[in-house]
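Researcher: Structure prediction, please.
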Amino acid sequence: MKIVVLGGGESGVGAAYLAKKKGLNVFLSDKGAIKDDYKKQLIEAGIEFEEGQHDEARILEADWVIKSPGIPKKADIIFKINQKGIRLSSEIEFAAEFTQAKIIAITGSNGKTTTTSLIYHILKNDHLKVGLAGNIGKSFARQVADENFDYYVLEVSSFQLDDIQSFRPYISLLLNLSQDHLDQYNYNYEDYALAKFRIAENQENDNFFIYNKDDEMSMNLLEQLAIRAKKIPFSTKGNLNEGGFINNDKIVVKIEDEFSMKIAELSLVGNHNIANSLAASIASKILKISNESIRNSLMTFQAVEHRLEPVAQINGVTFINDSKATNVNATYFALESMNQPTIWIVGGVDKGNDYSEIENLVKRKVKAIVCLGLDNQKIIDFFKDKKESIYSTSSMEEAVRVSKSLAEKGDTVLLSPCCASFDLFDNYEDRGHQFKNQVLKKAID
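Model: Predicted structure follows.
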């Protein structure tokens, strides 16, 4: 079988490595430059590859093409692969074919990384043999090739789900839906939402689908879709006969028996994180993890980097890194949790954002807006009649300097960009690291 892998990043190199280890004929192609570390890995594994071009003739001879999630589905080469009827899969689909481990897969517009990391922490804390993959750390394929885990906890994006045919998690979680990546889904919210629901499309009645009963789009689509898995809801707004909910000052999960703990004991703060903790607790109960172990893990979990991450307090001003907030809904949660006057750093590559969702929060909580991007006009135009203090910057150094000059004792400077990072940064991690470096540098200056 001829395998062609498109993309030479963590996902693509991992898929090529797994294919090689399984004795398949594999070739990797990346239209851009491949980083030196990944090139070294390919050479050491004896994997043929090309960079800076796509050898279309060779690619179109493949029996199976593995596509990295960063390659747009509208790319010319993807159109030609589909036209020829060649099987096209994401790395998660490919890797899942080579493991018997139970897969817990998490998707949603916001909270994926936190919830995935939390479930992994719970399983690891309970001494299970578990891997963490998807959009986090080492690729799923590389771990399947080298490890012998009984469980995998995977953070899964809509782009990865676009390219599945048979991917079937034991437990799937759809945390929430909000308008994101609409530029890749014909600016149609329902198309994007349906891509997320693909996480459950191959599940059978011996599998589990955990969903958010408070999410309007999820509930609308659930009425239309024939999901065969056992459906278990969570809600922060009302009691449930089965699933996860809040009762007074406690989170409660009812599945066979009951688990509960005080909200004040959770390591994660904010209403959105209560929802994430409920979803993670449901998955843990399905996996028969003891109440005592779940409680211990929920109390000891450390928040994810770049997600409402406290950086420093300088002269009474708190600096918070929420670089992972790449859509409006994620920033909604960040602003909602602010209890001090806030200087808000926002901007980057707009993905079809509708800022009206956060308009009232900005009016109530934001003292000044500091735009950070190559093109800040859309943000400026939307908020110019709503906030007097709006500043335009085009580097992290400038954004932090301006924010620091505006902040007074008791204020918060919040980086929560609403946008993708690719105009000025390599990715959201690079943006978050630069923010932290500039904040700490300014502390010394």
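Model: DSSP finds 17 helices and 20 strands in the chain.
Researcher: Thanks, that helps.
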